[in-house]
Amino acid sequence: MNYENEYKQKLVTAEEAVKIVKSGDWVDYGWAAATVIALDKALAARVNELHDVNLRGGILMWEPEVFKVSDGGKHFTWNSWHMSGIERKAIDKGIAYYSPIRYSELPRYYRESNTPLDVAFLQVSPMDKHGYFNFGPNASHMAAVCETAKKIVVEVNKNMPYCHGGFENVIHVSKVHMIVEGDNPPIAEMGGSSALSDVDIAVANLIVEEIPNGACLQLGIGGMPNAVGSLIAQSDLKDLGVHTEMYVDAFVDIYNAGKLNGSKKSIDRFRQTYAFGAGTKKLYDYINNNPELMNAPVDYTNDVRIISSIDNFMSINNCVEVDLFGQVNSESAGTKHISGAGGQLDFVLGAYLSKGGKSFICCSSTYKNKNGELKSRILPSLTEGSIVTDTRANVQYLVTEYGKVNLKGLSTWQRCEAIISIAHPNFRDELIKDAEKMKIWRKSNK
């Protein structure tokens, strides 16, 4: 069947498409690299006609035009499922807000929520001969968005990678209300190769030695997980698999080094499974039309039951700070928002339930503040206002450049002692004094 006529009938300009947005509407804007561009520009041009339009998306990789309008907060709110640095800056402008949720819950939220979804905007790859638009490396929750939106507008970008999936990675032209052809900009890049610090390398070495042949990997975003990926690529490990929330450049390096084949995975054998991908052109070129890659909805990739069914699952993620009780904050600096809950807790739980699985939370032991003062990331208690991403009952391995400790099953004094042992030496005596005040330190262990 030829779908070209239907395509042509639905083809409109971005300016025409955004006329369907009304004041008070809830409008989804896509996700990560699939965030709309032409439609965003056209909607921003209507700023004086609109008020209280609620936009929703996450992991912005460029600043939308709606953020740049005068008195933007009166006309638009940006409600983020997971924040990037661009979105953090928009908080100070009074336009951006975080929506706390476990990332894995998004598809169900859309399908069961009473919050109306008036319009869905999203970037897609060109329509194929069967009438399908591909979500690119962003299956994530896009199918659920499209199922529940009153109106769907796709913005076609010829540069969007065509990403193979298991399910829920495409939308048919018959379900689309309008089609916009953008200017086909390059897909926005995130991260890329940067020199690894001595701390990154020290932490990565401590983790890589724990990974067996045939393990299945999940890497979070950031320097340390990528450092782990770089060292894995240089290691003697073999027959590794991938099942991850975010597909990052490090996986491409591991594959090119001959370490990845997915042969030992108990499900989705020989395929690298992920919810969304963001990285450099190297990544987009690699995943484009690559049948080994499997882009799946996030309620599959991040399902604790799915994760735990894969033997030797290795979960590797960053954090902002940790306290002497073992509580992990990966979302904020006090009340200052940084990112979001994402899927970290899902992978922490799932990896520990996996046969032979291990969960690693890593961080540098210290950082320097704006005044150049050295500060510890290991604290007596989390900074006031900080968010608990992983509770003390869930954390397994904690890793800094000074060592790694397994906190599972340890009593408060044992875990306190273990955590202080991998703190920066400059802060250990002070942490012991604080621990004594909190009654979680045994003097016999000094």
Tell me what the structure shows.
With 446 residues, this protein is of the alpha/beta class. It folds into two domains: 4-181, Glutaconate Coenzyme A-transferase (3-Layer(aba) Sandwich), CATH 3.40.1080; 198-445, Acetyl-CoA hydrolase/transferase C-terminal domain (Glutaconate Coenzyme A-transferase, 3-Layer(aba) Sandwich), CATH 3.40.1080. The chain contains 16 helices and 24 strands. It has helices at residues 4-10, 14-17, 38-44, 72-75, 85-92, 106-112, 142-148, 198-208, 223-233, 249-256, 281-287, 298-301, 304-308, 344-353, 412-421, 425-437, and strands at residues 26-28, 53-57, 76-80, 96-98, 119-124, 132-134, 151-156, 170-172, 178-181, 216-219, 241-247, 272-277, 293-295, 313-318, 321-323, 328-329, 332-333, 336-337, 358-362, 366-368, 374-376, 378-379, 397-400, 403-406. The strands form six sheets. It has an eight-stranded mixed β-sheet with strand order 13-12-11-10-14-19-23-24, sandwiched between helices. A seven-stranded parallel β-sheet has the order 4-3-2-1-5-7-9. A hairpin with a 2-residue loop joins β17 and β18 (336-337). α9 (223-233) packs parallel to α10 (249-256) and α15 (412-421) runs antiparallel to α16. The longest helix is centred in the C-terminal third of the chain and has 13 residues, at 425-437. It is globular. The termini are far apart. The mean pLDDT is 95.
